[in-house]
Design brief:
The protein is an alpha/beta fold. The protein contains 13 helices and nine strands. The chain has a single domain (48-303), classed as Rossmann fold, CATH 3.40.50. The protein is 37% helix and 15% strand. Belongs to the ParA family.
């Protein structure tokens, strides 16, 4: 059993915050709610796959979208899932975070979106984690916002790319750009659900209303099956009153949509970027790794997987 849960007699797991002994003793997490009891994730069902597509979305930059995409993906792989990460940010941070040099890419997600006759297998790259692949990006993708404007059914461009990959993976995570432009709308149109990483800071909180409004418009006009899977607090520092107040405000506003797992600030996350691997392999026994394993269990429980 890793640090993110305690075994129960029925084989289920009680999640707890690995950094907070008081919360552990009271079975209360940092969100102020009792930790749920979740069963250990079962292996994926045999037979034909149909991936759940999850957009990791927040128009504010620096809230932990890329870190969460990489580490949630790696934690899902540990449960036996096959995962594809899609870098839909022209900055290419997800690609860099997994050891891909964006400057040497001959083909990227840009070529799949706007190129003709490009084979997706020529673009998919492996990662340091067996069972997790990546569709990388680089600065070329910045031109896609302009070029897509004149395309027919421009909001469905990414959907066509990912639909051909659904039967290869159990989960596809899309790391969105920090904007609400056409690339992000493409991600929301292709996705089955949205996870919103939210830095526990006031300015990050302000933008959530605009994001939820955009999600509602996509649901109404383009993708009625889209749902908000949950919000996850990131960069949380329980030592500061401000972080605790922001997290409590989010819970008050969104209730059970907020994941119980909260990602705390730690120096390990910047180190993993330099190492080009997720925290689950770089510092497997760290509280950060435990938090993402906890989040993975919550995600699977909400997906019914």
């Amino acid at each position: 059993m890793d640090q993110s849960g305690a075994a129960r007699s029925d084989g289920s797991t009680a999640l707890f915050d690995p950094d907070d002994s008081v919360a552990e003793a009271q079975d209360i997490g940092p969100t102020g709610r009792p930790w749920p009891v979740l069963p250990e994730p079962a292996p994926p069902a045999p037979g034909r796959k149909r991936a759940e597509i999850i957009a990791m979305c927040n128009q504010k930059g620096g809230v932990g979208k890329t870190t969460t995409t990489i580490n949630l993906g790696a934690a899902l792989v540990e449960t036996g899932r096959k995962v594809l990460l899609v870098d839909l940010d022209p900055q290419g941070s997800l690609s860099v975070g997994l050891g891909v040099n964006p400057h040497t890419l001959e083909l990227s997600i840009y070529n799949l979106l706007l190129g003709k006759g490009v084979d997706v297998d020529d673009v998919i790259a492996g990662s340091p984690v067996e069972g997790m692949d990546i569709l990388p990006s680089n600065i070329d993708l910045s031109a896609a916002e302009i070029q897509l404007v004149s395309e027919v059914a421009r909001e469905l461009t990414l959907s066509r790319v990912l639909e051909s990959l659904r039967d290869r993976y159990d989960v596809i995570l899309v790391d969105c750009a920090p904007s609400l432009g056409l690339l992000t709308v493409n991600a929301l149109t292709a996705a089955d659900s949205v996870v919103i990483p939210l830095e526990c800071e006031f300015f990050a909180l302000r933008g959530v209303a605009l994001l939820t409004d955009t999600i509602a418009k996509v649901q109404d006009r383009l993708n009625p099956r889209l749902k908000v899977l949950g919000l996850v607090g990131t960069m949380y520092d329980s030592r500061t009153l401000h972080a605790r107040e922001v997290l409590q405000t989010v819970v008050d506003a969104f209730g059970d949509q907020v994941f119980h797992s909260v990602i705390r600030r730690t120096v390990k996350f910047p180190e993993t970027t330099v190492a080009g691997e997720p925290i689950t392999t770089y510092a497997s026994s760290s509280p950060g790794a435990a938090a993402y394993r906890s989040l993975a269990r919550e995600v699977l429980a909400r997906l019914g997987a």
